């Protein structure tokens, strides 16, 4: 299995890379700064930015599955997903790669909070999403729109807050909305779930919520 990873140097990306290597997969990663990446000698590195169409295409070409755990390094307006995801989709179409599993967030869809208690839904919608997470949420809305109209075999994994705690191996999955009172999940469990989707068709063409 040949996997192309975008965002491999990030917090979730490092976990995902380690799992792919552990599974015996060949990994190609697009990295802005390969020298800082501990796993660089065990993978094929394409050096460059996800805003560079040629570098994105070189990363995708020849892979069976694309994993994206890209994101901005700050809460400011960086438009990482707005710029990169359309380039990834275009590169996949040009090179005939069909499957992409992308990390998104529960903020991507208006219905995501419909299973939450009213008070929690109000606070998240009216305060959290409109202030602190304004730009990350805008990016995730954009990512969802790009993937869902791509015609590719896409899955967008949509967690609430990510933590760096050890994975529990037990979590809730929901295709409709964030599970009731689901407020966090560890990056390790998210990485494990994304790995499980490489060989699964269950969530193709769908967004899927994941939380404790
Ligand atoms: N934090 C949360 O609680 C939370 C909750 C739900 C969803 N999410 C979403 O989950 C995703 C991943 O989060 P994370 O915390 O694992 O990520 P992260 O640690 O912030 O890492 C982001 C990754 O994206 C890469 N990247 C950004 N711009 C790039 C560019 N122009 N070219 C190439 N690579 C680029 C970074 O590369 P460099 O190493 O070169 O910077 C890094 O590998 C994000 O989309 C985030 O919005 C986060």
From TrEMBL:
InterPro entries: NAD(P)-bd_dom, NAD(P)-bd_dom_sf, Polyketide_Oxido-like
CDD domains per record: BVR-B_like_SDR_a
Residue ranges the record marks as coiled coil: none
UniProt-listed SUPFAM superfamilies: NAD(P)-binding Rossmann-fold domains
Domain NAD(P)-binding: 7-200
GO-annotated molecular function: oxidoreductase activity, acting on the CH-NH group of donors, NAD or NADP as acceptor
Official protein name in the record: Putative NADH-flavin reductase
A Pfam family reported for this protein in Swiss-Prot or TrEMBL: NAD_binding_10
Native organism: Edaphobacter aggregans
Source superkingdom: Bacteria
Upper taxonomic lineage: Bacteria, Pseudomonadati, Acidobacteriota, Terriglobia, Terriglobales
TM spans (from-to): none
């Amino acid at each position: 299995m040949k996997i192309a990873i975008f965002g491999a140097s990030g917090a979730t990306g490092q976990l995902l890379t380690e799992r792919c290597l552990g599974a015996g997969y060949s990994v190609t990663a697009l990295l802005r700064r390969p020298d800082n990446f501990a796993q660089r000698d065990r993978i094929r590195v394409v050096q460059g930015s996800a805003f560079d169409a040629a570098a994105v295409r070189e990363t995708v070409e020849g892979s069976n599955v694309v994993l994206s755990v890209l994101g901005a390094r700050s809460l400011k307006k960086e438009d990482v997903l707005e710029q990169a995801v359309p380039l990834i989709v275009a590169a996949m179409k040009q090179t005939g790669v069909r499957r992409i599993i992308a990390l998104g967030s529960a903020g991507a869809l208006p219905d995501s909070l419909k299973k939450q208690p009213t008070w929690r839904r109000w606070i998240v919608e009216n305060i959290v999403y409109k202030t602190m997470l304004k730009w990350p949420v805008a990016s995730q809305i954009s990512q969802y729109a790009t993937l869902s109209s791509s015609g590719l075999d896409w899955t967008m994994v949509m967690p609430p807050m990510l933590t760096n705690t050890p994975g529990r191996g037990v979590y809730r999955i929901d295709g409709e909305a964030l599970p009731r009172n689901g407020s966090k999940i560890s990056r390790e469990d998210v990485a494990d779930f994304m790995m499980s989707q490489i060989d699964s068709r269950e969530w193709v063409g769908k967004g899927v919520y994941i939380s404790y």
